Amino acid sequence: MKKTVRVRYFAVLREQRGLDEEQVATEAATAGDLYEELRKRHRFAFPADRLRVAINGNFESWAAAIRDGDALAFMPPVAGG
User: Fold this and answer.
1) How many other C-beta atoms lie within 10 A of the C-beta of residue 62?
2) Which end of the chain is more exposed for a tag (fewer CB within 10 A), N or C?
3) What is the distance between the alpha carbons of residues 62 and 33, in angstroms, rounded to a whole number?
4) Does domain 3-75 have CATH number 3.10.20.30?
5) For residue 41, what are the CA distances in angstroms to 17, 57, 67?
6) pLDDT per position as a tens digit, 3-58
């Protein structure tokens, strides 16, 4: 079933995509499925196991179901000093 979700990108993902956020129409069932779909489409460098995902402001597992209208955020590791 097709759904529309809002996706926010941070750090290197934002740089690779060239956007802070976008609306995405998808048939992905889980956060992991959606990330893999977007990873292929936008050629993101990071595999999912190197990232964190939040759905509607809460950190979730990659197996978490996504629903129409959800807001997801993909966050790569950050380096600092």
Assistant:
1) 16
2) C
3) 8
4) yes
5) 10, 24, 20
6) 999 999 999 999 999 999 999 999 999 999 999 999 999 999 889 999 999 999 99
Question: Using alpha carbons only, what angle is made at residue 63 by residues 61 and 64, rounded to the nearest 5 degrees?
Answer: 70
Rounded to whole angstroms, the Cα distance separating 21 from 6 reads 7
Between CA 8 and CA 70 the distance in angstroms is 11
Q: How many CB atoms lie within 10 A of CB 1?
A: 7
β-bridge mates for residue 30, sequence order: 65
Token couple for 27: 């048939």
Provide the terminal-to-terminal Cα distance of the chain, rounded to the nearest Å: 44
| Tokens, residue 44 | 């993101």
Query: Would you give the distance in Å from CA 56 to the centre of its chain?
Result: 12
Beta strands at 58-60 and 71-75: parallel, antiparallel or unpaired: unpaired
